[in-house]
Structure formats: structure tokens, C-alpha cells
Amino acid sequence: MRRIAFLIIFVTLLGCESKSVWDQRFKESVKLSQPTLSVGLADPNTFTFAMVGDLHIGGSDATRFRNLLQAAQAEGDSFIVLLGDIADKGEAESFLAAQNALKDFGYENKVIPILGNHDIFGNGWTEYQKIWGASHYSVDIGNSRFIALDTADGIVGEDQFEWLVDELERSPNSHTFILSHYMPVVPGQQTYLRLANQLEAERVMNLASKKSVSGFYGGHYHSFCQERIAGVDYVVAGGGGGRRMKPVEDYFFVQVSVSATGVQTQLKIIP
Asked: Is the dihedral of CA 202, 17, 239, 109 positive or negative?
């Protein structure tokens, strides 16, 4: 009984500490500029973009990411969404390697980055914001709004949830996408690698359905999973470089095709 009581207290304290850290980062993020974007589209109603999570770049070696960018460039994808865990240990060298790769393939100001749990290891949050700024923000590209959440501690939080409500209320776009490292659900998988609080996850999913969100995209789980739930497409695209998990154990990115009438996703395997 004592051991159980100790574990309960430990988990509670750990959750409180995580929330405190997240609250501080959220307050800092409010004051930061969002990533600079310069995306030119021939047709604002018809375009494609690439998305991938969990690059886990270690040190300066971004070889796998460069292969992915080369493939996305060849596909003609207009921009790229990075769904968290860009760096493996939150090192400045790793973030810089990612940024240099983006520059080399023409995606320097054509990237929507999301903060992941590995990105805040060590001094990661400080290093991350030097390059990309805010950890939560929204941007409009073509006929779509992209809402980036900070779930790097496995939570959404009350302040961010209220911010998300406001962003969804103000979205006049044909399509709205929510981007998050931790997903509220990992389709088809029984796993703890999702938002920590089930009630919070259900609350976010209910909001997404109510506001007719086109897609809820994320990573953290290192595979590809997809399911349409209550009108929303939930896609896990953790194929960038971390250890592999079922059902898709290849490295990959997901190409998203947007049109005035709908959204389609396609898995793109990277050798």
C-alpha cells in the first residue's frame, strides 16, 4: 500500500511540474514572433505540402532529412510541416542542421515547425526559439489555416485550449488543420504515446469535430496511422528518423493534397 501511495504522489508531482514548465513556456511563446513564412502558390485553392514528425536529428547529421526534402522537392510540395522532435536531444547543432537542410532545398521560409518533447531536452526550448520563435501560433496559406499547438509536455492546457477555441472561431478558410506533436488518438494502436489526459484528448477531439476541422496531424508515435473520426481525419506521420514502430516501419513523409473540395493524403516512403 505504501508503494502504491508513493507512486500516486510521485506521478501527481511529476504532472504538476510538467504543467508548471508548460505554463511558463506558453507565456514566453505569446511574446515571440511566429515562424517567418513566404509561400507562393500558383493556385490558392489547389496545392500540396509534405509533413513529417520525429526527425530526431542527432548532432549535425541530417542525411535522412535531406533525402526526405529532396523527395518533397521533386514532388513539387509547396512547403513542409515538421511535427515535432526535430532534434533528438534539443541541441543547437541539431536545430541548425535542420535549418541548413531546409535552406539547401529551398524550404527555409516554407516550413511550419511544431515543438516536440525531445526538442525541449536540455536547453532545447531556448535554442528552438532562436530559429523558429513561438511554440504555438496560426498561419494562413492559400485556402487553409494551420493551427500549431505546443504539446511538448504531453498536454494542451486550459490557456491553450481557450486560444484554440478562439483560433477556430476566427477561421474563415475552406480548410482548417490542427498540428500537434502529441496526438489525442493514435488510430488503431493501443499506446501511451499520445496526450497524457484522456479527458483532455476527448475535449480537443470534440472541439475539432464541432468546428469542422479538416485534419488533425501529429507525430510522437513513430509510424503512419490514419482514421476519420467524427468528421476529422487523424493522421500520425512520425516517419522522419526515430526508431520504427508498427504498422509502417519504413521512413516516410506524408503528402497532403488540398483542393477547394477536399483533402487527400498519400504515404511517401523514403529509402
From this structure: positive
pLDDT at 164: 97
Question: At a CB cut-off of 8 Å and minimum separation 6, what does 205 contact?
Answer: 184, 185, 216, 229, 230, 232
Q: Return the percentage of the chain with pLDDT > 90, whole number.
A: 88
Residues 185 and 193 sit within 8 Å (Cβ to Cβ) = no
Asked if pLDDT for residue 14 goes beyond 60, the answer is no
Q: Would you state the pLDDT for residue 18?
A: 57
Residue type for position 80: I
CATH tag, 42-270:
3.60.21.10
Which residues have C-beta within 8 Å of that of residue 217, sequence separation ≥ 6?
51, 81, 83, 177, 178, 179, 180, 235, 237, 254, 256
What does the domain layout of the chain look like in residue ranges?
42-270
Whether the pLDDT of residue 52 is over 50: the answer is: yes
Give exposure, 172-199, as e/b (b: 16+ Cβ within 10 Å).
Answer: eebbbbbbbbbbbbbbeeeeebbbeeee
Lowest mean pLDDT: which of 34-38, 61-65, 74-78? 34-38
